[in-house]
Amino acid sequence: MNNQQQTGKAEKVASKLINKLALTELELANREVDIDELNARIQQLTQVNQQLKSQQNKSAEEKEAA
């Protein structure tokens, strides 16, 4: 195998590794977006849950007062 063939083969291997790394980084970025969306949804649900508990407590207090 001459130098040109070795260089060509090395470039192909390097290109494959770069593509694999880029794909891995994209997958990680997608997971981060998913996690951010899930965290936002959890915050929304927590707020709604707190509001519901507050309403339930209010209803219970009104029943006791009646």
- Count of individual beta strands: 0
> How confident overall, as mean pLDDT?
93
Strand coverage percent: under 5%
Low-pLDDT parts are: none
Given the structure, what is the number of helices? 1
Radius of gyration: 28 Å
**Coarse shape:** rod-shaped
Helix and strand run: H
Q: How far do the termini sit from each other?
A: 95 Å
Helix content: over 70%
Q: Indicate how many domains the architecture comprises.
A: 1
Task: Write up what this structure looks like.
- The protein has one domain (1-66).
- 95% of the residues lie in helices and 0% in strands.
- The chain contains one helix and no strands.
- The chain is an all-alpha fold.
- It starts with a helix and ends with a helix.
- The chain is rod-shaped.
